[in-house]
Specification:
alpha/beta, five-stranded mixed β-sheet, 5 helices, 9 strands, 27% helix, globular
């Protein structure tokens, strides 16, 4: 069983592709250090689509979420799964993902872009999806839900995100 699993779940346009390229280009060094980056980037894509039951998923794809999770469970060290599409998982899908990993610790890494446009990794250890959107000091008031000058209502689109640390004893989702 993996000791720790790091789930890098996006978000889009926060440097995820760069992070993934660095990870995949260094997968051998990570393995030498006892850190598993299972299969391939394509396998992570297929597993994410399977977990989310995405309509575009290839039902004949070899890599499913359960197969990827099995590779992680069989690893004695730490492991990393990285796919920005995981950030759009529903509560039930996120709970399934965490439970399927059976790791001592599951760390969710959710980088964010501040309203100033700079990427920053989350540093909070707050649990639950409620912590994933917030009103930190870098969020501009104009990003809040509410009436616009034309009188229409805008949806709340939080520009700040927080990560969550999970263990099998945790409840809730990322």
């Amino acid at each position: 069983m993996a000791r720790r699993v790091y789930l890098h779940i996006g978000a889009p346009k926060t440097g995820s592709t760069y992070v993934q390229n660095v990870l995949w280009n260094n997968s051998a060094a990570l393995a030498d250090a006892g850190i598993l980056l299972p299969a391939s980037a394509a396998a992570h894509d297929h597993a994410m689509a399977d977990l989310r039951a995405a309509p575009w998923r290839d039902s004949d794809a070899y890599w499913t979420w359960d197969r990827l999770a099995e590779k992680v469970r069989d690893w004695p060290g730490d492991a990393i799964i990285s796919n920005e599409g995981l950030g759009a998982a529903t509560d039930a899908q996120a709970a399934r993902a965490v439970q399927s990993l059976e790791a001592a610790e599951v760390h969710v890494i959710a980088p964010a872009v501040t309203c100033g446009g700079r990427s920053r990794p989350s540093g909070s250890r707050a649990s639950g999806r409620a912590a994933a959107g917030g009103s930190g000091p870098s969020c501009a008031p104009s990003r809040r839900a509410g009436p616009t000058p034309s009188g229409t209502t805008t949806p709340h689109r939080p520009c700040c995100a927080a990560g969550a640390t999970w263990s099998p004893r945790s409840t809730g989702t990322w």
